[in-house]
Amino acid sequence: MQNHPASNGNPRNPNSLHYIDPSGRLNSYQQAITEIGEVIQFYDSDRRFPAWGFGGKTFDGTVSHCFNLNGRAGSFEVDGVEGIMAAYASALNNVSLAGPTLFGQVINTAARIAGQSLSYDRSKYFVLLIITDGVLTDLQETKDALVRASDLPLSILIVGVGGADFTQMEILDADNGRRLESSTDRVATRDIVQFVPMREVHSGQISVVQALLEELPGQFLTYMRCRDIKPLNVQMAQTCA
């Protein structure tokens, strides 16, 4: 998922965070997609992933904060990590980056999919990966969306790229022990966000995958245990498959 030109620059400029290097060297967005996608793809049986962009002037000229990265009106899914990478590269050629940066719509879209799954399969759990430069315009709207989503089978992983001030992302992560509050004073049921800045990874302090995924098992188990959802035994799972 991508951000706006004011912070990222023209994707054809080598100084842009979105620059596609002809030599094949991955930019920060591609690194995050590859490193994280190659781990979490094994937890998706069909390996088809919804892929959206935000902060882009799409094909019809309107600025969208949740558009299908593959450019297709009726389908937002792509095949595997390779499909995400191809859709990302294609979008950079077909979509003009535009501000402001808003998270609310894309979080609500993922939450809607997670919510709909409850009517047919309560054992499903969803993970939304957001890659951003950290300059967020709709902080309160994002908090509201996260508080609503905290009741759903959903976790949100945020990777920060570039040298921006990521104070807002730290607020969303809520690792200080204080759960997020909405504009109506509703408190999040649980923490569903994990944030990691790529610059710490580049400095060799941590592995982005390890840091980003370390809270995910606990978030998943908290959700399932609160709803008394137990795993299928192996024989039953094989029969269902």
Description:
This protein has 241 residues and is α/β, with parallel strands linked by helices. The protein has helices spanning 5-8, 28-40, 80-94, 104-117, 139-149, 167-173, 198-202, 208-213, 216-226, 234-240, and strands spanning 48-50, 52-53, 56-57, 63-64, 67-68, 77-79, 96-97, 126-132, 154-160, 193-197. The strands form four sheets. A three-stranded antiparallel beta sheet has the order 4-3-7, with helices on one face. A three-stranded parallel beta sheet has the order 8-9-10, with helices on both faces. A two-stranded antiparallel sheet has the order 1-6. This is Protein BONZAI 3. It comes from Citrus sinensis (Sweet orange).
Task: Provide keyphrases for this structure.
globular, 241 residues, disordered N terminus, 39% helix, alpha/beta, three-stranded parallel β-sheet
In short:
The protein has 241 residues and is of the alpha/beta class. It has helices spanning 5-8, 28-40, 80-94, 104-117, 139-149, 167-173, 198-202, 208-213, 216-226, 234-240, and strands spanning 48-50, 52-53, 56-57, 63-64, 67-68, 77-79, 96-97, 126-132, 154-160, 193-197.
